[in-house]
Design a protein that fits this description.
The chain is of the alpha/beta class. The protein has 2 domains: 245 residues, FAD/NAD(P)-binding domain (3-Layer(bba) Sandwich); 204 residues, Glucose Oxidase, domain 3, CATH 3.30.560.10. It is 25% helix and 23% strand. It is built from 11 helices and 22 strands. Strands 5, 6, 14, 15, 16, 17, 18, 19, 20 and 21 form a 10-stranded mixed β-sheet that branches. Helix 4 packs across helix 11 and helix 5 crosses helix 10. The chain is globular and about 70 Å long. The relative contact order is 0.19. The mean pLDDT is 95. It binds flavin-adenine dinucleotide and iron/sulfur cluster (SF4). The site of flavin-adenine dinucleotide (FAD) has 41 residues, from helix 1, helix 7, strand 21 and helix 11.
Length: 512
Amino acid sequence: MVMPPNNGTHIGFKAGRVWDPEFCAEADWVVVGTGAGGAVAALELARGGESVCMVEAGPWREPRDYPRSSYATMRDNMDGWGATIAMGRAMWPIVQASLVGGTTVVNSAIVVRTPGDIFDEWKRDHGFGGRALADDYWSAQDVIERELSVTATPQATMGRTNELAYKAGHALGMHDHDMHRNIDDCLGSGNCMQGCTNDRKRSANVTYIPEALAMGATLMSSAPVFQVRFERKRAAGVIGRFVHPRTRQKGRRFSVRARKGVIVAASATHSPALLMRSGVRHRAMGRYFRAHPGSGIFGIYDDPVDMNKGATQGWASTQFRTTKGLKLETLSIPLELVASRLSGAGHTLKRRLGAYRNLAMWVLAVRAEATGRVVRGPGGKPIVFYSATKSDMVRFREGAKLVAQMHFAAGAKAIVPGVYGIPYSLGPDELHKLDDIPPDPRVWTAIMSHIFGGCVMGTDPKRSVCTPDGAVRGYKQLYVMDASAIPSTLGVNPQHTIMAMARVQSRRILAG
Ligand SMILES: Cc1cc2nc3c(=O)[nH]c(=O)nc-3n(C[C@H](O)[C@H](O)[C@H](O)COP(=O)(O)OP(=O)(O)OC[C@H]3O[C@@H](n4cnc5c(N)ncnc54)[C@H](O)[C@@H]3O)c2cc1C
Ligand code: SF4
């Protein structure tokens, strides 16, 4: 059976054995992945009158069905149980989602415009960018902000952890960055990372994807694409096999024919792996993987902070973005994850967890200079090699000191740095002990949730897999429109830049 194009259907898991006939569909454009990049690309093409088939590895989940515990979030929403590890001097997890809407479902909804200096940097280092591109991105971001009801978190639902951070920031003369989020009347339940069960986050699965379906696009979920298919050097479709969203059992094979082309938007780890599995060769493939690794420092306060009440992230400062390569922000995490961050076991851990209500966690995110590499691992899955540099680790230490100063300025009686070799907690007059942190990534508990590169854009044919329009070099009608195409770190939260890039590039495709 071949699905007709332009029918607005959602096709979920289909059972079947490997020898059963494949499920076939057809559209002008096949978009692989429905996260920040894929959802925008699919919708823009559908708005332009093209028939589109979105093919997503993860399942469709309604907000009311998002899991409530961290364990179930890792199991149901995250890519590889949230356990994709960057291999390097330290083994830091790379966190991203795998469901319809991609990582926009589990992110904190922070929306930050692409800083102007990024376009200068791209122009200088990658041969494209400059003012004209900045204007294109910012116009796209005007539209995205309207469509996703980007607003400030309501004061009433800010929560004490964010209020304390504002107080500390003002006391230390730090500039707050304008914290806007794609939310509609956020209730401040502090659990953005599980997905917003209150349906207040305007993630792609409740905005752009339903609109694309309403415009006649097709969505296939629980449908990981294995390879892009080529006719000579033209991208002619994709093939894969359905995977059951709960049992993970393989189902029927599928193939989707693309009459006009294929857009790959499967994330900074999966897009290069998919292209490698498909036989796309380029010397820069998988290279220039970058990240904003981050780590949290707890403050222990005399009165309850109740970080689980209030916006997950309601305060940030980008004051040190260009000087120290740092972003500071609040981040609330659930009790189970706090338990994994406080060291110790048995009675010790129980006693430490007893302070949960009085803890606030604030984060330092480093605009790291390190570059890593995505390679094709067993079964074609991505493996990431990445090690932070010595100067990145000096930035970690600087960030820890700034966050610790903030906690004390807000009235914390102690901080818990969570760094190996440093005492469990430090009082206000022990801040100098943070100077003892060695520039070694192994002593930190860090994660990477903002990742870039692997199929970077640029004008140098040797150093960039894609042209500045996202077209994969050496192939026809094959584009990349997600974080993997971004050739640098940004120093700010990336979804707005990725969405703007996808919007600008799909409109260029429509314009021919
Ligand atoms: C916990 C967390 C919080 C964050 N908070 C923020 C924030 O507040 N603000 C912000 O700007 N950014 C935030 N980010 C980062 C931001 O969400 C990501 O940078 C952005 O979503 C990346 O977009 P993308 O299109 O590259 O990939 P994704 O959004 O990750 O989408 C990729 C999609 O492709 C699918 N896919 C992968 N492989 C295949 C395949 N083979 N076949 C089919 N589909 C496939 C995946 O399942 C996924 O749905 C956060 C990230 C995390 C993890
Ligand atoms: S803080 Fe709670 S209500 Fe607000 S967007 Fe996040 S999950 Fe939804």
